[in-house]
Amino acid sequence: MKRLLLTATLLVASFATAVAKDYQISTPNTTVILTADEGSPLYFRYYGSKSSIGDVRAAGRMVKYDAYPAFGTRCDAPYAALVKQNNGENASKLVVERVEQSTADHLTTLSFYLKDVAHDNLVIKVNYSAYDDCDIIKMNTEYFNNGKKPVVLQKYMSAVLPIQSDNCILMTLDGNVKNECNECVMPLPEGLYNITTTTASRIAQYTNASFMLGLDGKLEEQNCPVIAGTMAWMGNTHFEFYNTSAARIPTLFMGGINPAASDYTLAGKSSLVTPEMIFTYATNGKGEASRSLHRWARKHQLLDGTKTREVLLNSWEGVHFDISETSMVDMTRDFAALGGEMFVVDDGWFGDKYPRNGGTTSLGDWMIAPQKLPNGIRPLIDLAHNNGMKFGIWIEPEMVNTKSELYEKHPDWVLRHPDFDPTYGRGKTQMLLDLTNPKVQDHVFKVVDDLMTQYPDIYYIKWDNNMSMHNAHSQYLPNELQSNLYVDFTLALEKILKRIRAKYPEVVIQLCASGGSRLNYVYLPYFQEMWTSDQTDAYHRILIQWGAMNFFPSNMLAAHVGSAYSKYTQRLIPIKFRFDVASMCRLGMEMVPSKMNDAEREYAKRAIAEYKTIRPVVQQGDLYRLVSPYEGKRDFSSLMYVTENKERAVLFAYRHWFKHDMSNIIIRLQGLNPDAKYKIREVCPEYENKPAAISGKTISGRTLMQEGVVLPELVKGFTKNAPLGEVRAGNDFRSVVLELTEVK
Asked: Does residue 731 carry a pLDDT above 90?
């Protein structure tokens, strides 16, 4: 890093005497190169493996493409900036005015100020940032209106990335509620291909603002170059891929705020910062790209990213809205007996005039429902503490029901057009509060502030969002600024979150949006974890968690053990399989412990205790995906985590359904020290005294990686009179979890 800082400093210091300069910033293994010539466009030259400027030029890998093209210079080329001046003009020509360099917290940033030759009021600052401890490059822009009159930003992208490949394979994450984060892989189509989100407050509901590109005609876990990108933004996003093999730049990427219905009026003497695009480049496949993103997230983006997370029981799937003091007391005590570390009271605890007995009332009225909890939540907090556990509670502070005291007092606080019948969300009464209104911002902050002031020993808050922005009209903003709504609403939410974190930096907050509809890096400085999905089917969860972990680390993804029978898929899945699937992320439970039979409770107790022993590896280790549930016959999948020092690892292997030709399944491990010996132990076998045949063996890392292992337990059926109750009905589903410990 010392050499990088020195180089960057010299380049900037010499800029005044040497006008044309090549600028280079590097991570430990990657490099970005740009050329800045005062009075000329800023040119993007290279993004790839760490190299010197001379080597990149000698190898013929230097490209020359406008790093931030504006509308009006070449109408046949893509543009990142479109600014309408007060007089109606919208053509710009951007040239380099000056360059600045800064360093902070393992981060070096080069900022290129581009002035509009045609309009002296417009300056766009283009930022490139590189970390010295992980292979992450960030890009974004800042628009300055230095004039007195407003301008309208009609397109204002965060990043432009030219790519020297005409044979790219694209992977995105698509789906819907209870079916999030499905891997979608295809050759990048010829021409223009867009990935767009439009749901505003639930931006990941259908498509996640993330992608991976395989650059040599393949996208694999290993042995291929990959660019991964994700955008940190709470609002609508827009990605453009231009694939034109005949062009001098075969592939071009642009990413930023979705400009649809978002012409942004930028007042005079003001500025707008666009969201960050986060990139990593990997030469060894998408597995390496994922590990780079995970390491960066834990170190620099995720709040408390290096801490392990507690095992909790959430009340929702067990009792839904049927909250009572008796049921909460029983669940707390029963979970403590299983070794649980936290109990969370979910939806249904609030409402005075309108008690929360379903999804049609009470949002906005954040007072305890006396009919349900006559003694309040203090006895529940104390009970959790007396049983060695922490306490958490559910809120949905951005929402209101039309049947609520809040709505009766402040109908003008919601998003809706005065001349239209509104579109409602959950329960056909739910509406989204207008966060652009400062009074609403105060209200949302006060929801958290009141809870934490009255109950400062609340350890955990589950923050939910069950409605997209259906009524895109602010009753607060003037008509001439309605097209600012999507952006200003998003900025207002971030302002609220910053305010909450300034006063309550320690409280753990989970972000939920009917599951994973808000999975995005922008939330990670404010939320320690995210609810991955409302899907309770453990097999379906493998697919969801697998997709999410392409970009997001395991310790931010909450995964809970639900009931054997999934109401969403009508599948019956054994308890071991459910625990083993949930244990690949942050483990929790989502059921009533008293409804389990004795054998299930005993197994759950063992599984929780065993998870605690492997938790540091699962939540902080490097992820290696071994056999994908999305590829091949889809009857089997496997992944593993390895500590940074390679002394410990945890392997997860799952059989999704039974086939008679599975006896020779070979799993080749990754990430181990080839010269080390590893002692293998099965983690929480189905029967405590009958571990897997491989348990207790010692095998070299080289053999485990090159030759692999065979796990016959995965192809066995269940015994006729299995003690775990329902397992015979789930005969397809078997799993094995192995801990590997280096023998010194």
From this structure: no
The rounded Cα 126 to chain-centroid distance in angstroms is 25
Q: Do the two domains 2-301 and 623-743 of this chain adopt the same fold?
A: no
User: Does 732 have pLDDT greater than 90?
Assistant: no
Q: What is the mean pLDDT of residues 339-346?
A: 98
Tell me how far apart the alpha carbons of residues 673 and 408 are, in angstroms, rounded to a whole number: 65
Pairing of strands 264-266, 151-163: antiparallel
pLDDT classification of 73: cutoffs 50, 70, 90: confident
Alpha-carbon gap, residue 343 to 391, rounded angstroms: 5
- Band (pLDDT 50/70/90 cuts) for residue 447 is very high
Question: Residue 135 corresponds to which tokens in the numbers above?
Answer: 């292979």
pLDDT tens-digit series, residues 710-721? 998 887 665 545
pLDDT in tens, 462-480: 999 999 999 999 999 999 9
Class of 312-396+412-429+440-472+507-614 per CATH? alpha beta
How far apart, in whole angstroms, are the C-alpha atoms of residue 688 and residue 107? 49
**CATH no. for 2-301:** 2.70.98.60
Cα separation, 485 vs 481, in Å, equals 7
- For residues 574, 576, 577, 581, the Cα torsion angle rounded to the nearest 10 degrees is 140
Contact 142, 125 (CB under 8 A): yes
Query: Could you tell me the residue ranges of all domains in the chain?
Result: 2-301, 312-396+412-429+440-472+507-614, 623-743
* Cα 120 from Cα 215, distance rounded (Å): 40
The per-residue DSSP string of 79-121 comes to: -SEEEE-TTS-----EEEEEEEEEEETTEEEEEEEEEESS-TT
Please give the Cα distance from 282 to 263 (Å, whole number).
Answer: 36
Average pLDDT, the chain: 93
Query: Residue 722 is encoded by which pair of tokens?
Result: 């299995």
* Separation in Å, CA 195 to CA 226, 494, 579, 725: 18, 24, 35, 46
Domain 623-743, CATH homologous superfamily name and number: Golgi alpha-mannosidase II (2.60.40.1180)
Give the CA distances from residue 214 to residues 7, 149, 170, 277, in Å, rounded to whole numbers and listed in that order. Answer: 31, 45, 7, 18
Hunting for tokens 């590097």 — which residue is that?
26
Report H helices in 504-597. Answer: 538-548, 575-582
pLDDT over 90 percentage in the chain:
89
Integer Cα distance of 375 and 143 in angstroms: 54
Expressed in percent and rounded to 5, the helix, strand and coil fractions of the chain are 25, 35, 45
Q: Which of 206, 245, 738 is nearest to 517 (CA)?
A: 206
